[in-house]
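Retro notes, structure queue

What went well: the backlog is down to a handful. What didn't: a couple of records were mislabeled last round, so from now on we paste the full input next to the output in the thread. Example, using Thiol:disulfide interchange protein from Stutzerimonas stutzeri:
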Amino acid sequence: MPLLSLKRLLLCFCLSVIGLPGWAAEMPGPDDVLIASSLIASTEAPSSGSTTTLAILMEPQGEWHGYWKQPGDVGLPAKFTWHLPDGVTVGDPAYPLPQTLLIEGLMNHVYEHPYALLVDLTLEDNLPDGTALPIRVDMQYLACRYDACVPERASLDTTLHVGDGRQSPDVAARFASWRQALPRPLAAPASFSVDGDLLRLRVPLPASVSIQNPHLFSATKGAIDNAAPQRVERHDDELIVETRAGDQIPDAFLATLKLSDSLGLDIDVRRGGPASAAGSGLNTILFALAGAIAGGLLLNLMPCVFPILSLKAMSLARSGISPAIARRDAVAYTSGVVLVCVLLGAVLLALRAAGAQVGWAFQLQNASVILILMLLTTAIAFNLAGLFELAAIDAGTKLTNQSGASGAFWTGALAAFIATPCSGPFMAAALGAALVLPTAAAMLVFSGLGLGIALPFLLLGFIPALQRRLPRPGPWMETLRRLLAVPMFLTALALLWVLSHQVPADALVASLGCAMLLALGLWLTGLWQQKLKRNAWLPSALALILSLGLGWSQVSGQTAPAIDVQRRAFDEQQLAQLRADKVPVFLYFTADWCITCKVNEQVAINREATAQAFAAAGVEVMRGDWTNGDPVITAFLERHGRSGVPLYLWYGAGEAEPRLLPQILRPDSLPELVRR
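Corresponding output:
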């Protein structure tokens, strides 16, 4: 311990024991109570087998203050000795959010106003009604002010009787206000690293959560220097706190993070070094990377990507190129795919950092982008169908006509770009995790998605044995090319369906007219090509310009509406009535500061597939918002064995008990509930 801090502690000790002559008249007498205390039960008649709550109300008098469970540089925590009847157990007290009090460079974690410590009291089953339950607690605690500290004792008691658990409205309201002052438990763990005497703490916290005068209280003594300045900054969905490390830093410790005077979070902090970072953070990154690669690989089977992959494979079969050129084209194709995925990921992260609530395939939230994709896939489909051959248009026809590294690169870029309307297994979880990872790790995941998309052609280019297994060139290749037009037409149709959810009916009809106009231009181009006319590209070019101009004027500025299931605010009486009526209910509890909740809402809850499945099955959705605390929700969470969010419950029609769902939801977790 520094010499200066030791001197200050000795000075405080001397003042608390002997006082100074000038202050002696102001010291309390032996019968003065400096912090009044009382024991209050939330119900005088707790039911057998239930858990009720006791409040130890502490009321500092005048300038005196009490201490948090970790008092800081000076002071002592309160000690409790319980005397309980058989069949009754008690938990540890829950402390409200403390205040900071800096005196002569010493940091105190204190309460200068009345505060309540809440304690859970659990009764065993089968206690007879009317059984008397005498409860007593003996306390030792410290009362302090700026110039002195006085140890105090109190013995508090009450007698409860086993009954029906009924609460009086006045007492219920008091307990509600006391619960409101408690910090909320953060489900996701925080991590820390130490560089010299600097401790850097990383807390997952959505960027949308506002903070005011934040402060970190360590509940473990010696983890941080309590009096050291704290620097707080935000980085995407992460809050970073930097302060001076303590002299006894454990590998894990508990802390309370004050976000504002009325909101705090209890956090579990783990060392972010090789043991835990590799165990949790690195595992998360590797899991997301593996999911992205697998998801990208499976995208090659989707209607929007499979034709392009097939055409590139056909080009190898047709040309009989050397192994070196095959490898070159494979690398160029992979580079184009990965570059587009990385660029889309970078734009996505930049938009989220700027405050936009967007996810993967965010470009599909813009109707103009969907129109361009629809016209592009329409042109590719007609090209595959043999309507025209136009090497001058680099959109889709170079997939079959252009050779060389440049053609392979742009083919890969096109494959990645038109793959965005598609969705495959593993992708949602992987990309959802990428949105909450650090930027470098997120970019690695986006690169993994591109690698997965390019992997089949990459392997084909580097493994001659696979090339030799390709069928020999022949007339079948033209037949296959015509067949591959079908999935591309289906992709164009799917894009038109997406557009129908974003624009009015007249704009949708205009977009369909644009596709027909483009098809007309491509048909005329094909006729001119057959007659070997010069400037055969003119009809399609004019049709493309007119289609884009007309379509842009109709859909420009249209954005995708937020997909959201119809839901009610949480209400226990409404829930009971819905269950009595045998209506299926999905109930979930969330908070703005819960990053796990936000990822689940994006990945699984606020999805069109979920909304459609729930609507078809008549499922009612209830949402409990625990952002600022709610005593009713707190009590409900505790009854279901949870101290925090998220909590997901499924009440099947007529089922007696709810089904507890996992805290991490998959994209199809909720639609599966109604299919069972």
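Agreed that this is the format going forward. Reviewer comment attached to the example: The chain has four domains: 35-182, 185-271, 282-364+391-479, 568-673.
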